[in-house]
Design goal:
Layout: H1 2-7, H2 10-57, H3 62-76, H4 80-90, H5 100-126, H6 129-137, H7 142-172, H8 184-195, H9 198-228
Membrane topology: Multi-pass membrane protein
Keywords: Amino-acid transport, Cell membrane, Membrane, Transmembrane, Transmembrane helix, Transport
Family: Belongs to the binding-protein-dependent transport system permease family.
Length: about 230
């Protein structure tokens, strides 16, 4: 019915085409200036936090284990949107006001850190104990063995799930629109509010997200194929 009404009305069809064309640049601008930088920054920070959390989880220091467990449990047990709202809307009530973009960075980094830490921890634990023993046999300390033997192997094991996390993060950044970050989906919302063509503009935004994720998935496949050359069959 919707498509038939558009086809039967050439003027409306021309208007929709014009809106789609004119909205493409602002949405791409939002992707380039906010969506992609937000993804890259939060993934890097989240990955650093994830490594530290994973090491704390497998540490023999009890207090570090407890802190890491509480952090992971709290982040994984609450919705990402709620976390963003607490940071951006909640903290100002106690006098701590953070701008939209930094709020998004904090929220997404904490979220990625918790989820990715479990991936990294599992990868570290998957390394055979013989690798540890080999490091100790040549005089390495725990830290040296971890840095030179275990983490390089664990990183290779972690690539596929972490790549999926990165691609998912691209889509999750759309939630930043709800804390006033003018990323790609926020641009689509703002344009739709002026012409009420919600279906068109949200579909256009969805296609752009899909294109970005599709390109990244191709890169992921090539990276995994490259790393697979160094994996014993």
């Amino acid at each position: 019915m919707y498509l038939n009404s558009i086809i039967a009305d050439p003027e409306r069809l021309d208007r929709l085409v014009e809106i789609a064309q004119s909205s493409l640049l602002p949405m791409l601008e939002g992707a380039i200036l906010y969506t992609i930088p937000l993804t890259l920054i939060t993934f890097v920070l989240g990955l650093i936090l994830a490594v530290l959390t994973a090491l704390a989880r497998i540490s023999k220091i009890r207090i570090l284990q407890i802190i890491a467990r509480i952090y992971v449990s709290a982040i994984r047990g609450t919705p990402l949107l709620v976390q963003l709202f607490i940071i951006f809307y909640g903290l100002p009530t106690i006098g701590l006001t953070i701008d939209p973009f930094p709020s998004a960075i904090i929220g997404f980094s904490l979220n990625i850190g918790a989820y990715a830490s479990e991936v990294i921890r599992a990868a570290i634990l998957s390394i055979p104990k013989g690798q540890w023993e080999a490091g100790y046999s040549i005089g390495m300390s725990y830290t040296q063995a971890m840095r030179r033997i275990i983490l390089p192997q664990a990183s290779r094991v972690s690539v596929p799930p972490l790549s999926n996390t990165f691609i998912s993060l691209i889509k999750d950044t759309s939630l930043a629109s709800l804390i006033l970050v003018t990323e790609m989906f926020r641009r689509a919302q703002e344009i739709a509010a002026t012409n009420y063509e919600f279906l068109l503009l949200y579909s256009e935004a969805a296609i752009l997200y899909w294109i970005i994720c599709f390109i990244l998935s191709i890169g992921q496949g090539r990276l995994e194929a490259r790393l697979d050359r160094y994996t014993e069959k």
